[in-house]
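Quick one: examine this chain and its backbone structure tokens and tell me how the chain folds. Here goes:
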Amino acid sequence: MYDIIVVGAGPAGVSAALYAKSRGFNVLLLEKDEVGGLIKSVSHVTHYVGLSEGESGETFREKLENQIAEADIELKYEEVIEFDLKYELKKVKTRQNSYNAKAVIIAMGSTPKDLGLENEKEIGVEHSALGLDDEIEDRIIFVAGGSDGAAKEALYLSKLAKKVYLIEEKDELGMIDEFKEKIENSDNIEAMTSSKIVSASGTRDKITEVCVYDSAEKEEKIFENGEDEFLIFAYIGQAPNTELVKDSLEMSGAYIKTDGVKTSIPGVFACGDIIDKKIRQIATAVAEGCTCAIEAQKYLGY
């Protein structure tokens, strides 16, 4: 039996595990895929204290992995498929094993949202530029989204692509001023507001046509590839991975409802992208992970 089980090894979960371990607790960290969560797919990490300008999502992920090893935290790569949280002794079941703990910290993160196109898989809409430099070079790139994340990726893609169209459904870009200025000063990024990709034709190897609807002009704009090659990227937000707990914890829409980081069940805490909150940044996720560990310590009576 463990004192604390942390589910999810993104920045929030790793922070929770590190702080819990530092307080002398027997901690198990479960991760179904790879340490880092969505951060590993980011071209570069910005505005985080202590990081250099050239920090990529992958190098940041490696640092998290190293911290886990250095802290001697037990990490198991197993996918959680079921929770039983209603009793004092909490149970977490994976595809391989079943574990018990006195407290559970849920940090299962989120999944990038799709565009909702009928043939989205066939045309190969991407959510990360990682490892695609050769494919991006000299292509026409369509980036759906107007947030900071979309801006960072558009700026990265513009260094390699022939042209980048940044397509935002709202009537103005929702990014910080720093990114707006960089987008405006870019020679090969064109921002299209009040616009949405509504269809695309072809395959992942050759997208032949992209249709963008401009709600302000009330017209469709058709982009045909001709001699150019197209790629589409989607950065329109994330959906919280709360499917396993939505029937056992109090929810706020698709998110876990919390009082700080406390859920509706004593001894169960949540942090990161799965909780209902206004600010979604690495810095806030790490802070929430730390708070989860401290609140778990109080709950356990230490």
